Amino acid sequence: MAIAADCKSALIRVHRFESFCSHYCFWELGVDGLTRKIEALEAGVRLPEVPLNFIDMTTLKLWCKGSEVKTLQSKLNLIADGIFGPITEEAVKDFQKKNGLTVDGIVGPNTWAKLGVTQSRYINEIIVHCSATAEGKDFTVADIKKWHLARGFSDVGYHYVIYRDGSINKGRDESKIGAHCTGHNSYSIGVCYIGGCAADGKTPKDTRTDAQKKALLELLRELKKKYPKASIHSHRDYANKACPSFDATKEYKNI
Length: 255
Prior knowledge:
Layout: H1 2-24, H2 30-42, H3 67-75, H4 86-98, H5 109-115, E1 125-130, E2 133-134, H6 141-150, E3 160-162, E4 168-170, E5 188-193, E6 196-197, H7 210-226, E7 231-234, H8 248-251
Parallel strand pairs: 1-5, 1-7, 2-6, 3-5
Antiparallel strand pairs: 3-4
């Protein structure tokens, strides 16, 4: 009886996990994205609400569920039951084959594009970070990507990185969910400047060069034009840390 009870408990946990993944369509976020979402829910963090008129066309595969699957099925002239089952997978593979796409049954950006559906994300936050590296030290997007891959991320976590010389460098594409702020990644853009620590590499310090301050201001203004409803925040607003070593929320509140 005890074994049966344990099996039942395990099945319930698996079912809840699958339901969670299907509801939020997190199968393709990689280890970092899925782990961060689960940690956020366990910590009681409320995930941002998505406007009812917004559909985020995430990557879909076998056993995903939801409105995105219904949209896909309608495009493929299938019964739109919202469940990505074997029939839907077969229809996707057939569509991919006919349109010269990789035939894997997974609906990503290329397949959505061929279906005539535009990929998009609803952005309501722009979060400012620092690389937490010593002042006077230069690092690149490639360096940060290496650190993040070592932590199990699927790519560099930030969307933009500002070097000490003021150059603005792209990280993850804006259309992709970042990995920079637990509980806020899905609907935010992550911006990081190189620095943030004193020479000892530990003590928090606003090490922005004049060039970085100018570039950060310009980038945030451009992002606000693109996402007018997004608010600007410091990473420390959502985490128990000093990042980005200055009050970005206050400094950029009038942008």
